[in-house]
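Expect chain and fold; thus:
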Amino acid sequence: MSDLFDIEEELKKLPPKPGVYIMRDSQGVIIYVGKAISLRNRVRQYFQSSRNLTPKIVSMVERIDHFEYIITDSELEALVLECNLIKEHRPKYNTMLKDDKTYPYIKVTVNEAYPRVLFARQLKKDKAKYFGPYTSVNAVKDIMELLRKLYKIRTCNRNLPRDIGKERPCLYYHMGQCDAPCQGYISQEDYKKNIDQVIEFLGGNYSPVVNMLEEDMIRASERMEFERAAELRDLLGNVKIIANKQKITNTDQIDRDIIAFARNKDEAVFQTFFIRGGKLIGRDNYHVTGVEGESDGQVMSSFIKQFYAGTPHMPKEIYLSAQPDEEELITQWLSRKKGQKVLIKVPQKGEKEKLVELAGKNAQLIIDQDMDKLKRIEAKTTGALKELAEYLDLPMIDRIESFDISNTAGFQSVGSMVVYEKGKPKKADYRKFKIKTVKGPDDYASMYEVLTRRFTHGQRELEEIKKKNLNAEWGSFTKYPDLILMDGGKGQVGVALQVLSELDLDIPVCGMVKDDNHRTRGLYYKNRELPIDRSSELFRLITRIQDETHRFAIEYHRSLRNKTQVRSILDDIKGIGPTRRRALMKYFQSLERISSAEVEELAQVPSMNQQAAEEVYRFFHGD
């Protein structure tokens, strides 16, 4: 506990008022946010040994270094503040909604003289009409494109009618997808009729459009205007696709959300159906973590608070698979957000109960699929590591470091260190080494240098940690591997064992042996080659590590080689030093563009003058 914060004393000072409490660890990080009708009663409960706390809360309490609180005028205000703080800080021990999605809307600017149909991410109080939310951005774009073709609605930002006739009509007019109100080619009254049809279409009434397109298609076909008929046929198909996606669920035209969830251990998946104007316009799923030990009511309550804190549209009715804790308070909060009464209900029969059941089945399906996916990932990663540990007769393997050398006939030799933890690449720990002490193509000497630098650096950092009492994670090389993999056989393994012996380190070393076709063949370990079953997850893991180590080394070597080539060519030009060289490369991006540039263009580059530009031009083109 902090020397300046006595929890027992601070608990006595807690007021019996509503508010939000914030738990922090020894680093000051917020690990939990909660609300209470009485801060005194609620916060004290965490520190009473007789309380029957869940394992998650016990773990959280053990990490509390100090807490703070904010008093509010009511429990409703506390709920709003709690939602905002959880969304901002995402505390470790709160039940967290992992997905932070915003949904697109279609906005019709009916407040303008010549309205537009726009894509929108937020609902604003701007007198425009909004339709949605839609769960697919692509669906919104498809609908907007369809409306432009059907009703020839403008897309420009011109201020009409003020700017009528000031500029030429845009490309959409010439493509037949805009009636050009900017030129006065359509009256405001006729344009408004088109907008009214757009609004009717977005409201779900597709019949007039379908009938109109079918009649126009037939007429075009009778006139033998087959291209026009084909275009109308495609439009008709698009309208029917959109109409079929929005199935009728009820005739009462009420906006509803249907929410159900399935859970497994510490995770839950929520499935939400969005019903707008009596039509199912989309659905989406959300992953929630930290649910172990929580009741269904607590999980549902946490989801509702986080989900509706972040969505601008509030339906009139919300049907749930489980009764949320604090239902009355949540209803108050949602009703205040909407500006009218919001109904929360767990249906027991009828059509709405079937919809909730369907959402629950979808959520369970996703949970099952996730579990299958996790099992496959586990087999590829930790399962393969367990197989490797048993194969080499080691107690366990968590961290693997793999090393390789890359050069071209000894030019710019480099070393790479690739790290895998729990069977997955940990790219933050990858390291590159430019060989400093070796001249020519000597891979063994280069590897000796790389390994010596890596582990002596680690030893120095560990000494600093002990001397200055630093955090164990302070150094980048302090974490040693459980296994070293060398891209090669007996020779490279021998180099690694020599370095470890000189530094008095005991780390197992394996060589990744390749066949004549440069494919992984087996492992060289303790002076013998061990074959690997090519159908095993172990073989696939070793192959991935070997390929990744080789790729990382090659890419680093290529980048150095390219830089050196650029530098050597430009440095041969009189008057071009490091500053002008960098400026030229930044401006032109490649040697080819520099070599083809005219003197006037070269002179425009920062730090270049006329004389330097002429020198560069002369170098590439001659006198």
Notes: Residues 247-251 have pLDDT under 50 and may be disordered. The domain at 571-621 is CATH 1.10.150.20 (DNA polymerase; domain 1). The first strand starts at residue 19 and ends at 24. The radius of gyration is 34 Å.
